[in-house]
Amino acid sequence: MSANTGFAARHRAARDKAANDSRLPTVVVGAGPYGLATAAWLSAAGVPRRVLGEPMECWYTHMPQGMYLKSVPAASSISAPEPGYRLDDFRAARGLGPVGDRYPIPVEEFIAYGQWFQERRVPEAQRRMVRSVHAVDGLFGVTLDSGEQFLARSVVMATGQVPFAHEPPELGGPFPAGLVSHTSQHSDLSRFAGQRVAVLGAGQSALESAALLHEAGARPTLIARAATLAFGDPPSTDHLTDRSRPVRAVKPGSPLGPGWSLLACSYGGAAYRHLPESVRIRLLHSVLGPSGGWWLRKRVEDRFPVLYGCSVRSARPEDGTLRLEVADTDGRTEALRADHLLLATGYRVDIDRLGLLSPELRREVQTFGGAPRLSAGFESSVPGLFFTGLAAAPTFGPVLRFVAGTGFAARRVAHGVVAGTRHQQ
To answer: Is the pLDDT of residue 96 over 90?
Structure first.
């Protein structure tokens, strides 16, 4: 008998009784910004819930010490249905003054803010990890790492971006331990001090990782497909509303930055969902494409070697190091030796990477390009199974890649959960 079959057998009587039990919980898997925001809005809607995960774990485990958020303070608050839980409120509670757009947020400050938000707005969060989720006759069977098993009416997957870390398949592999890794695997880049590290990518993660490596005493070489590196422009004011009216008319403000296209992405998630799937995927990767924060320029330019217009064609272990074949846009190749290859190659949503969902449940989820097809309420083709955060970005747009999207997502998820619960009763 399989574990799932055994679960169903042991809980059949409980399931029959619970099917119409309004106390059956909605489970939120993950306690990062999207999981916490979802929990706060479910709480306001009176939905019984269990919030499972270590608060802000992905941020302090998978992001390097010393990094800064790319988003500005005004766009970096976790959504709650009532006032008093914004980043400014956290800073005030700590005796710190307000900050504007010219203040890059240290990751350590944002982690502390997320934990403060959880303690005050989502105190019910449980520091337990979900091991598996599977379907049980219209409900969901949830198993925790502690061995506890229970039934849930609905499940919200708020697992963040780490499960979707992308490693280019052309590199081959697997590689011996310690030679190749993704940026999401590191919280402290100082371990590479004295080593030759090739960094693949040209976006915020690549540029900041290379800067942090250089500052930690490593010898980074950046390998970028782009012909040049792009950086944002320093904000002219601390607040978008401080700009002149003519400037605001040409480039209106938005949580993602100034400009009409960014305004549309910030507030047009509902409309974005109705675009052709191919267009949505293209826009997801092209809007706010690879670039670094304005404050990174002085830490990158002329600090370490950059190979422009290049890609890594292959990587081969050799004498305890890596021999990289680097090709330019004309097809010319050269060999580069490195002690480590750091992949700053972003994230690609593929729900098959979510191993905690049973294979049977994953097969029931309709997808496009690996991403789940979602309703206006973030519900998948499996009734009661919701996805939020990066997993929902292919449906609703780039704003779901940032903390600024927590409000749009959490409100709609809560509404969708409530509507689904009423339909079941």
So the answer is: yes
Q: How far apart are CA 26 and CA 18, in angstroms?
A: 13
The first and second tokens of residue 221, run together, are 């070489």
DSSP notation for 363-421 = HHS-EETTEEP--TTSB-SSTTEEE-GGGGHHHH-GGGGSGGGHHHHHHHHHHHHHHHH
- What are the tens digits of pLDDT across the range 148-159? 999 999 999 999
Number of domains in the chain: 2
Residue 224 has pLDDT above 90, yes or no: yes
The residue length of the chain stands at 425
Q: How far is the C-alpha of 220 from the C-alpha of 193, rounded, in Å?
A: 10
> What average pLDDT does the segment 392-408 reach?
96
Q: What is the CATH number of the domain that holds 397?
A: 3.50.50.60
Q: Is 78 left (phi over 0), alpha (psi -120 to 50) or beta?
A: beta
Domain ranges, residue 50: 3-164+347-424
Q: 425: pLDDT confidence band, cut at 50, 70 and 90?
A: low
**Cα 401–179–356 angle (5° rounding)?**
45
Residue 14, pLDDT > 50, answer no
Burial-class residue 145 by CB neighbours within 10 Å (0-12, 13-18, 19+).
exposed
DSSP characters over 293-320:
-GGGHHHHTTTS-EETTEEEEEEEEETT
Q: How is 276-289 classified by DSSP, letter by letter?
A: -HHHHHHHHHHTT-
For residue range 188-201, list pLDDT tens digits in order: 999 999 999 999 99
* Same domain for 214 and 101: no
